[in-house]
């Protein structure tokens, strides 16, 4: 991104006819503000400041985990190593009808500001913040075509529904929002980290989080470049604890009517390789983690809905969703 979220200005020379610059780089759109320079300008800035951004994302994840009962990082080296030892390729799943990646209508990946770790608020034309129980998300990416090496430099686009079950950019009432969507780039340990809120359970689907993996940050400008598309399943006991909180009332009933074994996405194996490890509590927030094996040697086409759950659930204000 072109600078810390909300940062404006830049180095502008005294003469009005001279193109303004930011960190020595000329504005792509001289008549617009820094935050409106476009995704390609953001990517250039991201690459030049990548070490700082990655360190900031890691610090945010550690800060959230410190608030939980465990007090450690979201995964911890022992958990990550154990997961890598039993590593399997992450199942290819449907992105659903609300990806926001340009493959079905709106394209948040073309917007300046999408590369961010805290995805709770909308950016650009809105600053609305999604409410709910705080949740840190940490994914560790492994390059299975390269002896399970940590997948440094891979980019992850992650999104999920809000506390009411709606998807920003699509669902009724939040069409003009883009919260709970964002991109992060894997650090030297293959880790990406996001700060979000716990998603709802809407009718017909087990609580889940969507994500796409791209080979690098330049590739996110086209959804066809994704090398993996999958979903994260959330543990039942954690969901039950969260859904007892105010604002999640409808999720209680919806969760009682579905299981990992009947869900249209996770039913083939009960979400075995997609079920997140979770620490924390409602008061301090949760930290979820998952090891993600990506095999660039296999076809990257997203899988369809499988199992006995039908064609997906129905989020409020929207149609069928995977």
UniProtKB/TrEMBL annotation:
Q: Which organism is it from?
A: Glycomyces terrestris
Task: Spell out the residue ranges making up region: Disordered.
Answer: 1-31, 90-109, 300-322
Which keywords has UniProt assigned to this entry? Dioxygenase, Oxidoreductase
Q: Which residues form the signal peptide?
A: none
Q: Which InterPro entries match?
A: Intradiol_dOase_C, Intradiol_dOase_core
Q: Which residue intervals define the domain Intradiol ring-cleavage dioxygenases in the entry?
A: 132-203
Compositionally biased spans, kind Gly residues: 304-322
Please name the Pfam families in this protein's record: Dioxygenase_C (PF00775)
The answer to whether the entry has keyword Ribonucleoprotein is no
Q: What is this protein called?
A: 3,4-dioxygenase subunit beta
**A single MF term (Gene Ontology):** ferric iron binding
The answer to keyword Amino-acid biosynthesis applying to this record is no
């Amino acid at each position: 991104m072109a600078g810390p979220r909300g940062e404006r200005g830049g180095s502008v020379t005294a003469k009005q006819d001279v193109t303004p610059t930011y960190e020595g780089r000329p504005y792509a759109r001289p008549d617009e503000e820094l935050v409106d320079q476009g995704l390609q300008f953001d990517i250039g800035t991201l690459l030049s400041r990548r070490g700082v951004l990655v360190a900031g994302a890691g610090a945010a994840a550690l800060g959230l985990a410190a608030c939980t009962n465990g007090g450690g990082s979201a995964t911890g080296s022992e958990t990550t190593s154990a997961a890598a030892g039993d590593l399997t390729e992450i199942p290819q799943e449907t992105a659903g009808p609300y990806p926001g990646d340009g493959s079905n209508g709106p394209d948040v990946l073309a917007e300046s500001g999408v590369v961010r770790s805290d995805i709770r608020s909308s950016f650009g034309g809105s600053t609305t913040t999604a409410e709910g129980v705080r949740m840190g998300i940490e994914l560790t990416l492994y390059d299975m075509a390269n002896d399970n090496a940590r997948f440094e430099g891979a980019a992850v686009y992650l999104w999920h529904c809000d506390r009411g079950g709606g998807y920003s950019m699509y669902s009724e009432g939040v069409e003009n929002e883009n919260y709970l969507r964002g991109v992060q780039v894997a650090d030297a340990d293959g880790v990406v980290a996001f700060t979000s809120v716990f998603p709802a359970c809407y009718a017909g689907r087990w609580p889940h989080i969507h994500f796409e993996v791209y080979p690098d940050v330049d590739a996110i400008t086209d959804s066809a470049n994704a090398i993996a598309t999958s979903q994260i399943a959330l543990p039942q006991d954690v969901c039950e604890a969260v859904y007892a909180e105010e604002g999640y009332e409808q999720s209680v009933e919806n969760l009682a009517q579905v299981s990992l074994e009947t869900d249209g996405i996770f039913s083939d194996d009960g979400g075995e390789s997609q079920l997140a490890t979770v620490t924390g509590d409602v008061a301090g927030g949760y930290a979820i983690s998952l090891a993600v094996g990506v095999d660039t040697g296999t076809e990257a086409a997203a899988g369809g809905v499988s199992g006995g759950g039908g064609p997906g659930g129905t989020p409020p204000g929207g149609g069928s969703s995977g």
